[in-house]
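> example.struct
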């Protein structure tokens, strides 16, 4: 089958040097960037219902830049002044550096890991085990917090944003030869938007084990799965698939 139109369920890349553009030109395909899901922040009224007082915490755990945005947004809406003594624990350096958008980085106590896992931060947690941690999360999260439990860390999860379906409009065309997903929520959105969806010849690609499993659980055929030793990225897997199906 000739693949001519591919939906990538992510926002459009900010850089014109994205590998997706090179693939589109090389294989003469149209790539459309159209997220199946979107993030919505909780309102200050909704957050108050959790009965969590941000001012009672001495440290914050961030596992995503989205969490950083919504934490500071809620603090502003709730008129909470964050003390200079607040400690920030981030699972990657990029998240830590993103804090510069909101605070004077060099004047704060900021710790970060390298792999994106909480385990990286264990030495820091142990060193600061007297702090009271606020863990900013979404309504759908699967972070393994056992490292916090085993270390005896006093932490509270605070849902600050939610993932919702980015619904298709009635006049929005759905004429794709391939769909690429990056989260189980994207598969759920597909089923929500198109309850009678029949895959037929439409190829489906995924990034991440949980997303691949969501495709199988939905009774759909998985044609491209990344990462793998041969294809560590979604673009590498896509290019290999298109090369094999010219």
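> example.seq
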């Amino acid at each position: 089958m000739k693949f001519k139109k591919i939906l990538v369920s992510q926002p459009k890349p900010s850089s014109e040097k994205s590998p997706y553009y090179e693939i589109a030109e090389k294989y003469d395909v149209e790539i459309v960037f159209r997220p199946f899901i979107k993030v919505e922040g909780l309102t200050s009224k909704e957050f108050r219902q959790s009965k969590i007082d941000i001012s009672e915490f001495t440290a914050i755990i961030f596992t995503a830049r989205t969490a950083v945005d919504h934490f500071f947004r809620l603090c502003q809406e709730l008129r909470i002044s964050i003390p200079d003594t607040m400690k920030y624990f981030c699972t990657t350096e990029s998240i830590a550096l993103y804090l510069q958008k909101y605070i004077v980085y060099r004047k704060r106590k900021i710790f970060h890991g390298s792999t994106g896992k909480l385990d990286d931060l264990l030495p820091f947690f142990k060193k600061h085990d007297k702090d009271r941690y606020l863990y900013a999360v979404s309504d759908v999260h699967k972070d393994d917090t056992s490292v916090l439990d085993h270390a005896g860390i006093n932490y509270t999860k605070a849902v600050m944003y939610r993932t919702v379906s980015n619904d298709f409009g009635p006049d929005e065309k759905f004429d794709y030869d391939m769909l690429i997903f990056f989260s189980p929520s994207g598969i759920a959105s597909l089923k929500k938007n198109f309850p009678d969806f029949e895959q037929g010849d439409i190829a489906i690609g995924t990034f991440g084990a949980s997303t691949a499993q969501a495709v199988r659980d939905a009774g759909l055929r998985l044609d491209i799965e990344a990462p793998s030793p041969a294809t560590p990225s979604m673009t590498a897997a896509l290019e290999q698939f298109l090369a094999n199906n010219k």
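> remarks
The chain has two domains: 5-36+166-244, 40-163.
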